[in-house]
Structure formats: structure tokens, C-alpha cells
Amino acid sequence: MCSSDLLPVFLLLSAMPIAAQGTNVAFGSIRQDTGLPVEVTADNLSVDQGDGSAVFTGNVLIGQGEMRLSAARVLVVYRAEAEGIARLEATGGVTLVSGKDAAESERADYDIDTGTIVMSGNVLLTQGRNALSSDTMSVKLSDGTAQMSGRVKTIMQTGSNN
Q1: Which residue from 100, 106, 141 is spatially nearest to 123, judged by alpha carbons?
Q2: C-alpha span between 81 and 155 (Å, rounded)
Q3: Among 32, 72, 78, 119, which is disulfide-ready with 141 (CB 3.0 to 4.6 Å)?
Q4: Across 131-143, average pLDDT
Q5: Of 25, 31, 29, 33, nearest to 146 (Cα)?
Q6: Which residues contact 36 (CB under 8 A, 6 or more apart)?
Q7: Are 70 and 94 in contact (CB under 8 A)?
Q8: Distance CA 124, CA 154 (A)
Q9: Is 139 within 8 Å of 116 (Cβ atoms)?
């Protein structure tokens, strides 16, 4: 066995302590402008004027710039004193796509003001042929980075067919 055959094993073993604490990864091919309009389409909409919220259900698709999020149900919470959306809470088969990267989870909470999406519950991130899974993933849209934590596991392709 030559030293180049050991490189993937070394990289995997050297990443283990980091993975136990959480790991940082790039997410998406672009930086997201969180000031762009949010477009929501769904089968149904229910609005509650009392608490300033709206619930979209059935094939919900949210778009903002190049980012797409889909889920079975999305709660939209509006700002109390100002115009616009404060946050989105997506549940039920959530999928987040940015560029060539895609992530799936049971839930996603998008804080518009901070530009952060926190995905939780069986998170699976795919980046080309590579895949990472964890309990949670926090995506900072302003710089296109993500941090995965809680039992992080990865499958890295070596590029070799051996």
C-alpha cells in the first residue's frame, strides 16, 4: 500500500475530533441577499390577523434569489411594528437548495433579520457525490457557510475507482 492510498484514511481520521464538536462546510454557490423579496406558493393559505401569522400548507415552495425551500407546511411570522417577514418555520420533509448543494431535514427555521437558517432532525447535506449528515445544520446566508453539529457523519469520495 503506497502513501497516496493512505491519504483518504488519514484525512478521515484527522477530521474525527472536529466532527464530534461540529464541522463547518460551504453551502451554496452564492451569497444570499436576505433583503430580496420572498415568494411563496402553496396549495392552501390560512391567515391569523390576531397574531400576525400565515400558514401555508400543501406543496409549499419558497424562493428568495437563487435559494429554494420546499416543505409540507410553512408558518410565516410577520414583524409586529414594521413591514415584512420576521421568520419562517418550515416542517414536513424540508428541502433547501442553493446552487448545486441540497439539504433535507424534518424542520427549518429561517430568521430573516440574521439571515440564518437552522435545519434540524435528520439533516442530510449533499454536495455533488459527497454527503454529510447530522442532527442540526445552521446556514449563514450572508457568506454561504454552514455548521453541522450533533453526530456528524460524512461520506467522502476519493475520486479513485479502486
Answers
A1: 106
A2: 46
A3: 32
A4: 89
A5: 25
A6: 64, 65
A7: yes
A8: 10
A9: yes
Exposure of 150 in the CB half-sphere (CA atoms within 13 A): 12
Average pLDDT rounded to a whole number, residues 89-111: 92
* C-alpha cell of residue 125: 447535506
Distance (Å, whole) CA 148 – CA 112: 20
What pLDDT score was predicted for residue 4? 37
The rounded distance, in Å, linking the Cα atoms of 85 and 141 is 16
**Cell matching residue 118:** 437552522
Measured in Å, how far apart are the chain's first and last C-alpha atoms? 12
C-alpha cell at 11: 484525512
Whole-model pTM: value is 0.75
* Own/partner long-range contacts of 89-93 (Cβ < 8 Å, ≥24 apart): 90/60, 90/62
Q: Which of 38, 28, 29 has the alpha carbon at shortest distance from 111?
A: 38
91-128 burial code (b ≥16 CB/10 A, e <16): beebbbbbeebbbbbebbbbebeebbbbbbeebbbbbe
Is residue 115's pLDDT more than 90? no
The length of the chain, given as a count of residues: 162
